[in-house]
């Protein structure tokens, strides 16, 4: 795994008030075999009167390498609608719609001492629209702000050498009266079979199994598999962070 620092995106758009780093891991790491993508971003604010609290995150696009078999992963054989998640929570979604899970750390501006809150994150397959694979994230916290929050993502084309991107839109989350919206400090999730259990009917019986997962190419670029995270913030800043996973052994 490799983590790289961030730069503005595109260059000259604005003076970056935030910076970010990207972490990516493949579990297991074997060429030609199925795997789980584990990704995470860390965000920090720049110097200034805000006390280095980053602006609220509203966009997170994760571009993954060409040749990754997301469409043939066997993940998300059923789906769950965003409205269902928002109203009823994950228990209302079929187990076979689960795509991964992770966590988030947010900061709530409150007086001179900001409050940090952790949230559990889950990813589900959503109904296909306009021939695009869609997903929905669900974040659940307990205090003081986040309760239940569902927000969409879509698998979209991405410029070479990427094979595609998971484009996620995050809503603004209000806090206390006359206080700024929530700022994301860390956000990460798995995308793959790690920790997932699916079910199918075999000869009239319900049988559990682990879905296949993202199939890696049989060959690896000389410098490893490249990943790119593009982040957009409510203040107009856009930041890019990159990472490369070293070439794993053959499966």
What characteristics describe this protein?
251 residues; mainly beta; two-stranded parallel sheet; 3% helix; 13-stranded antiparallel beta sheet; 17 strands
Describe this structure in words.
3% of the residues lie in helices and 51% in strands. The protein is mainly beta. The strands form three sheets. Strands 1, 2, 4, 5, 6, 7, 8, 9, 10, 11, 14, 15 and 16 form a 13-stranded antiparallel beta sheet that branches. Strand 8 and strand 9 (148-156) form a beta hairpin. The protein is globular and about 60 Å long.
Helicity, as a percent range: under 10%
User: Total number of helical segments?
Assistant: 1
How would a textbook summarize the main sheet?
13 strands, antiparallel
End-to-end separation:
18 Å
Shape: globular
Parts with pLDDT < 50 across at least 5 consecutive residues: 1-16
Structural class: mainly beta
Calculate the mean pLDDT score and round it: 86
SSE topology string = EEEEEHEEEEEEEEEEEE
Rg measurement, Å: 19 Å
How much of the sequence lies in strands comes to over 45%
What's the total count of β strands?
A: 17
Sequence-ordered SSE layout with sheet pairings:
Blueprint: E1 6-8, E2 18-27, E3 30-31, E4 34-45, E5 57-65, H1 82-88, E6 98-108, E7 115-129, E8 132-140, E9 148-156, E10 162-169, E11 183-191, E12 198-202, E13 205-209, E14 214-215, E15 225-233, E16 238-245, E17 249-250
């Amino acid at each position: 795994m490799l983590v790289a620092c961030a730069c503005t995106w595109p260059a000259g758009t604005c003076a970056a008030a935030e910076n970010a780093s990207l972490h990516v891991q493949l579990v297991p790491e074997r060429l030609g075999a199925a795997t789980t993508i584990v990704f995470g971003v860390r965000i920090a604010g720049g110097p200034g009167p805000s006390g280095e609290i980053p602006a609220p995150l509203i966009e997170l696009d994760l571009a993954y390498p060409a040749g990754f078999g997301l469409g043939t992963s066997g993940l998300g054989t059923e789906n769950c609608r965003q409205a269902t998640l928002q109203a009823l929570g994950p228990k209302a979604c079929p187990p076979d719609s689960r795509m991964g899970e992770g966590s988030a750390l947010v900061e709530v501006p409150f007086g001179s001492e900001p409050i940090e809150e952790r949230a559990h994150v889950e990813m589900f397959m959503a109904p296909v629209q306009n021939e695009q694979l869609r997903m929905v994230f669900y974040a659940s916290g307990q205090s003081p702000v986040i309760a239940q929050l569902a927000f969409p993502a879509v698998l979209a084309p991405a410029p070479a050498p990427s094979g595609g991107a998971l484009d996620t839109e995050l809503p603004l989350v209000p806090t206390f009266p006359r206080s700024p919206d929530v700022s994301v400090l860390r956000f990460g999730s798995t995308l793959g079979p790690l920790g997932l259990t699916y079910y199918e009917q075999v000869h009239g019986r319900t049988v559990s199994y682990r879905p296949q997962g993202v199939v890696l190419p049989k060959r690896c670029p000389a410098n490893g598999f490249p990943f790119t995270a593009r982040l957009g913030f409510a203040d107009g800043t856009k930041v890019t962070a990159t990472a490369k996973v070293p070439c794993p052994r053959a499966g």
